[in-house]
Amino acid sequence: MGGYASLFNIGSQSFFEVPKDFPAEFDSLLRAPDLEIGPASYEDIAEIYRLENEIEGDDGADLVTLTARWRMFGAGFLTARQDGCLVGYIESCLWDRRLPSFEAQPDCFSSQHRIGAETLYIIFIGVAADCRRRGVASSLLAAISWVGRCYGARRLQAVSRDHVMPLYEAADFLPVTAMPDFLPEPAVNFMLMEHSLL
Ligand SMILES: CC(C)(COP(=O)(O)OP(=O)(O)OC[C@H]1O[C@@H](n2cnc3c(N)ncnc32)[C@H](O)[C@@H]1OP(=O)(O)O)[C@@H](O)C(=O)NCCC(=O)NCCS
Known about the structure:
- With 198 residues, the chain is of the alpha+beta class.
- It has one domain: Gcn5-related N-acetyltransferase (GNAT) (Aminopeptidase), CATH 3.40.630.
- The protein has helices spanning 45-56, 63-72, 108-112, 136-150, 165-170, and strands at residues 36-39, 78-82, 85-95, 119-127, 155-161, 174-178, 190-196.
- The protein contains 5 helices and 7 strands.
- The protein binds coenzyme A.
């Protein structure tokens, strides 16, 4: 399991009773047992950017945005590696927002991120195209649930494209409400999904 000890060195924000490592039983929760999951390092960001670009193309976050998200909440920015290769990642923030109102401003996450907030919001989850349907994303969701609990979050929240809903449903998220204007993507429906951590 990737070293959570490095969490102590990440970011500038105050620390919130996060244990040094994933619990021993965590490995058994992973659907892909040979995965290494842990917090992203600064050195990982260029590689994450390349994968983001492969997955999202021109709509993907740029290097500056990814770096800002990592600085904002490094503990909630996890990578998944297999044999050393980056195969997936998840970005998140903690906030008090109760969607569905959402302003898609570039800094909306960093301006609202707050350690101690009750909701861990999943900004993005992505898996390399040739590594899908092997449990990488569901393992990342299990890992981020653990991070959320460590930070006292009561729920996970994500806004899902319609074709990604099966992933969240498989991880016991429930649909809350449609968010038709979430992003300007024609012919894509968005749904607010939540998963209780209580
Ligand atoms: C969505 C995504 C992250 C899923 O990653 P993944 O590693 O393939 O997901 P998992 O293997 O953990 O899937 C777990 C379960 O979710 C469901 N699921 C995942 N992807 C699915 C798909 N394309 N179609 C239907 N069900 C799917 C299945 O129930 C799956 O279990 P199964 O393989 O035993 O049937 C990946 O397809 C991706 O990166 N897509 C592009 C980026 C994106 O849209 N990200 C979400 C931003 S809203």
